Prior knowledge:
Blueprint: E1 2-6, H1 14-23, E2 28-34, E3 53-58, E4 62-67, H2 71-82, E5 89-96, H3 103-106, H4 108-118, E6 123-128, H5 138-154, E7 162-167, E8 179-181, E9 193-197, E10 203-207, H6 221-226, E11 230-235, H7 242-249
Parallel strand pairs: 1-2, 1-5, 2-4, 5-6, 6-7, 8-11
Antiparallel strand pairs: 3-4, 7-11, 9-10
Amino acid sequence: MLILLTNDDGIRAPGLVAMYRQLTRLGEVHVVAPATVQSATGHGITMSAPLMTARVEVDGAFTGTSVDGRPADCVKLAVARILPRRPDLVVSGINSGANVGINVIYSGTVAAAIEAAFLGLPAVAVSLYLRKQIEPDYHQAAKYALGTINQCISSGLRGGQVATINLPVLQPDQEPKGIKVVRQCTRAWPDAYESRKDPRGREYFWNTGIFTLENAADDTDVAALRDGYITVTPLQFDLTHESMLRDWAGRDWSLGQ
Length: 257
């Protein structure tokens, strides 16, 4: 099995290194990842600047290709030019921070996996929920991630399909409560902006909003992760609102005002 591994935290991120070491149990792993942190960049791609690349050795674990671009760029470039053939699986992560709820829309980690699905490949995004009072153990998280990825594959993950996995952060003596397949929470993230002044007295704003795993329906990714479960959410990239499409298509649309 040929596996493409990428992320949005940058090619030297500890989560990517830990995931690499586990994925080698499945097959041949090629790393093509951003040269710098690309968190919350969504599904942007580079169109008006070159994509500079370099071969880099990381943490004694692997030699991969860094790309001076976005996560989606990494997947597109890897599949089109860098890999020896089309990969059998694309994994994005482990991201430092949960990608549940509306964070799925903003996430570069998830965008990389969705880009792979655009290209007809099976893909998985993996993220680790972080809490200030608990030191993240990426090695442990990667072991749980690998087990969950294996179950996604055995459940029939196919080319063009994508799932996002979120892992709870654990104390050394803890285990996840289990795995739940759940829907994405669509509760809005309350925005908060702090007003500040620059040295010339001009006003600017700093986003101070903090996403919390609270006040979510029990059948969602937010609630399950909050309660200590590994969450699996199948995603789709067809944004068509089907019921609205059917309703509007049945109307008489005219060219008049």
